[in-house]
Amino acid sequence: MKPPKPLNPASLLDASVIEDAHPPAKAVLLADVDARAMALLVTPYSGVAHLCDAVATERVIGVVVTPGWAYARAWLVQSVVDTVGTPVAIGAATQSGGESGADLIAIPSPALAQGLALYAVEFGLSRDLTYAYVLSSEVVDDTPTAAKHRAMQLTAALAPYTERCRFSGVTSFTPIMAAAVDDLQSLE
Amino acid sequence: MTITAADTPSLMPAERFILPPSNDLPLAAALDNCNHAWKWYRPPLISVAPEQGTAGRLTLAIPILPSADGLPYTFEVRLITVATTTVPLTVRYCTSYTGLSTTWTTLYTATPSTTAGVLLERVDTNKVLPADAVAVQVDVEAASGNLTLHHVLAYPAPTSAPSAGVYDSGFVPWDNGYLQGEAADGAPLHTEYFNRVGANVRALLTDRWRCLASFVQSEGNSPAHTATGPDAGGPTWFGLPPAFVSVPWASDKITVRVLCIASVDAGSSTEMVRVANLNQASVALDADRTIQSADLEVQLGGKGTLRAAILNPWVLATFTNTTRLHALVVLWRPDLGV
Question: Residue B51 gets which letter from DSSP?
Fold first, then answer.
């Protein structure tokens, strides 16, 4: 059993494992160095906020998936132009989870009206944009019968890889790692 | 005696640390895992979904802070063309950015073929970015019709095991002959071996900047989005969408580096781009067509994977003048501000 144990990267900045001149041969030292190297590998790098117009055009990006991670979520932002109009649906998909039909991820719009613009200036000085946020679902359902709001599937692996992800209906999206496997040895 | 970097880490179950009390096997595994990490620790340096509207050609300039070790990077470009055509792709870097007169060095060129309306995923490996590179230029042009450049991704990806010696990042590779094999059989577990793991982990963390946020559009004078000031009422700030930057498991407060390239068509160029941590600190950068840089202290909320902050970018436009934000990226490494 080898559960992934992410750590605060700042806690790994102290490079000294042994500071005594003649330390006793402790098993805890071995566990410490193992934990440091493994934490470096499995702690998610970051969630990149992509600011772009993914309303008019669906955006397809590559996300570097950290070892051991099986599901992703996303912070999503809609830029609301006006108080009238129909809310724009938010869509997402991953290559691992499927990119069409029932495999699509349908995320309820957090906005009461239409999300459309990127820059406020594009709609005139008197119409400031407001922003609506949503964090996509953590609920796991790998066999949906229809497009629904659920966690984004990844392919857990022992080495990082690039996952193709799709987003639509938003002006800012940040995919993040959400859930890891229980045991890294299951990936060997 | 060899230095190896396996494609997957060695997984030491907990019981291997206990019997015998201090054994060379888990220590060697941890050191091997550092070699593995040197090759496979891949935080994205560039992750950009460009703004362009619709165009046949797009040229982006993206500020970067590459590894001190002059590492090979993998570049992934995702795009869709309207027509079935070819897409000449050129990626360049520079060591001094001077706007449109910048002298670029070609990193690689490619001419992939596309099918109309079908996503092209182009992956190019082993592209070495020198340590003193300050920006990457991505130039794509559809030979026929328009294209949508969906994403540009770049991350460190050495293609071989590290070489012997001390790297500029501080990383020191591990030679398995020191502890294992006939010549080293029964060798002592030196204190340095333990500390080398800690030092190598630190070296990798502090050498490889990771992207937290990006907004990038054309380097030229007509990007898709610009901000033009009013003819009355004084300078006006225009907001971009908020950026949720996610830094899993990080401390309550971190310091990030904000880099931007912006320009104005006339008027003042001083402090025209501002990035603020929601209701907290902010930095202001000039729009003078150079790479501007400032460190911003950011307060994070949430826990674990949901550790995040909201950054609000703003662009200032003065009296009837236009401000263009060509590139805004936020990068981080954990020792910044410590």
Answer: B
Q: Please tell me which residue of chain A has the smallest CA distance to B308.
A: A47
Contact A60 B150 (CB under 8 A): yes
Q: How high is the ipTM of this complex?
A: 0.95
Unique residue bearing structure tokens 């790994």:
A12
Q: Say which of B33, B78, B233 has its CB closest to residue A38.
A: B33
Residues of A in contact with B199 (CB under 8 A): 15
Residue B52 has pLDDT above 50, yes or no: yes
Tokens representing residue B228 in the block: 């033009």
pLDDT at B22: 60
Please, which residues have CB within 8 angstroms of residue A22's CB and are 6 or more apart in sequence? none
- The chain-wide mean pLDDT, for chain A, equals 88
Does the pTM surpass 0.90? The reply is yes
Summarize pLDDT for A45-100 with one digit per residue, the tens. 999 999 998 887 799 999 999 999 999 999 999 888 766 677 888 999 999 999 99
Give the mean model confidence (pLDDT) for residues B208-228. 93
Contact A46 B245 (CB under 8 A): yes
